[in-house]
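SEQUENCE WITH STRUCTURE:
===
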Amino acid sequence: ELLLCAHAVATGENNKLQDSLAKAMERSPELTEAVLCLSRGSPDSEAVLPPIALAHLAAPRRRPSEEEHEGMAGAGVPLFSSVQLETILYHNQFSLPNVNPNAAPIEVTNDLFRSGLWLLPAFLNHSCLPNVQRLIVWDCLFLRASRDLVAGEELFECYIETLQPVARRRASLESYGIRSCNCERCLFEGMVLKPDEVQHVMEEAQRVKSNSTADPAEVASLAEAAAEAAEATVAVSLERGLIEGGLPKLPGMPLPATPLSAHRMAMLREGFETCTDEAEEQALLRQSKLFRLLLASLANV
């Protein structure tokens, strides 16, 4: 479901984006006030919301309402520095998409050299288990719900690469001023996957990557073995965590009423056996979702 569409304040090459933003701000005190309310990576910089309507945040180039304009009347354009803009862009800009139409399927990656600033989406907080998906087309940013939402539920974006272990995610978030992410996913993963188990999986993956001089067939065999070992580690850890209990609830991912053993789950997932009843079928469905979420944390190690 489409939640919102926002127009950019500025887009372009990274080395020119700050100048484009400054020019846009110089033309409008309302816009300048809104930009200066964006996060600069500290709690103090996130304490004030801009005194303008959400519609103006979504479409910052439109003419402000009379009430908004009167609220800023006589104030002139607030002063700002290049250091402020640099910090604001660092914490709030989104990379533009880089589309490769020649790939099958079409590849869409982040452009490392071009970005943009969208006001309303920049106010979304972070979660490693976001409930929205972002799509950028030209200078428009669309947010769609990634799962069913309830009225009044806060929208969460993910600031970083999600396909990495919790320790790496937390380290990446430090540059955004987030010292320790305690979202549901991080808490769940931290309780289920032990650091030494994750470290062993990472070491095995690195061993395969560093073996570039080996025969391609041997490398493929090693990669398959490492992937199977990672799956087994996640399955056993998940079984242990579910049996021990006390795991936090994840949005849209209820825990199985009766956990399956790692062996039983593997037999059912591979089709060697079938579920005995609806209860086991539901347990398999729920546990499989949790399994895939945990395994995704090891996808890019």
Observations:
- The chain has a mean pLDDT of 89.
- The longest strand covers residues 107-117.
- The chain has twelve helices and eight strands.
- The two ends are 32 Å apart (CA to CA).
